[in-house]
């Protein structure tokens, strides 16, 4: 670990970076103290088939490849605080995908996660208030999980 305390490492990313964040937190939680997944692909079977078919074939042809590559199938591994942020009118990564992930986390009894929903945002946010809110939430998560205030509960809606 080169002297790095994994509980002080926060991972975040948007779109494919959000996918990587989810996979990292779900499959390698011992390396992180928390994370934020923004506009994340949660299940490749529900994503752009033209794009994914070039890499994974189609869900019908290779359902195992899709399951092995989709964060939703690894959600039981979540052990660190997670912020999920997504626009409701996202035409690239469909909003219902994060709703399905949220339901899966609920079914698994996971408690240390939060979802921020942006009703008028597409995949690339355009409203300054949305950007400000999203990054304010990320900063609060960093401060509460790996920053100087680590261990202090993140107040909901604060």
- The H/E string reads EHEHHEHEH
Text of the CATH class: Alpha Beta
How many domains, as an integer? 1
Count helical runs. 5
Instruction: Estimate the strand proportion.
Output: 5-15%
At the fourth level of CATH, the homologous superfamily is Alpha/Beta hydrolase fold, catalytic domain
Strand order of the largest sheet: 1-2-3-4
Proportion in helices: 25-40%
- Largest β-sheet summary: 4 strands, parallel
* CATH-defined topology: Rossmann fold
| N→C terminal distance | 34 Å
For the residues shown, what is the average pLDDT?
Answer: 86
Protein structure class: alpha/beta
Oligomer classification: single chain
Shape: globular
Task: Tally the beta strands.
Answer: 4
Using only CA atoms, what is the Rg? Answer: 16 Å
At CATH level 2, the architecture is 3-Layer(aba) Sandwich
Q: Uncertain runs with pLDDT below 50, 5 residues or more?
A: none
Description:
- The chain is of the alpha/beta class.
- It has one domain (6-145): Rossmann fold.
- The protein is built from 5 helices and 4 strands; from the N terminus they run E-H-E-H-H-E-H-E-H.
- It has a 4-stranded parallel beta sheet, sandwiched between helices.
- The protein is globular.
- The mean pLDDT is 86.
List the main descriptive attributes of the protein structure presented here.
globular, 37% helix, 5 helices, 158 residues, alpha/beta, Rossmann fold, single chain
């Amino acid at each position: 670990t080169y002297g790095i305390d994994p509980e002080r490492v926060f991972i975040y990313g948007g779109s494919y970076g959000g996918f990587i964040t989810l996979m990292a937190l779900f499959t390698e939680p011992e390396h992180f103290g928390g994370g934020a997944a923004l506009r994340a692909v949660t299940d490749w079977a529900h994503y752009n088939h033209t794009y994914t078919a070039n890499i994974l074939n189609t869900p019908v042809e290779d359902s195992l490849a899709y399951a092995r590559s989709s964060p939703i199938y690894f959600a039981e591994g979540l052990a660190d605080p997670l912020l999920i942020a997504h626009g409701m009118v996202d035409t690239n990564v469909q909003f219902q995908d994060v709703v399905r992930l949220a339901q899966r986390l609920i079914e698994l009894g996971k408690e240390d996660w939060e979802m921020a929903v942006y009703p008028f945002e597409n995949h690339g946010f355009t409203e300054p208030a949305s950007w400000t809110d999203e990054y304010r939430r990320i900063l609060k998560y960093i401060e509460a999980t790996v920053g100087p205030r680590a261990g202090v509960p993140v107040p909901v809606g604060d």
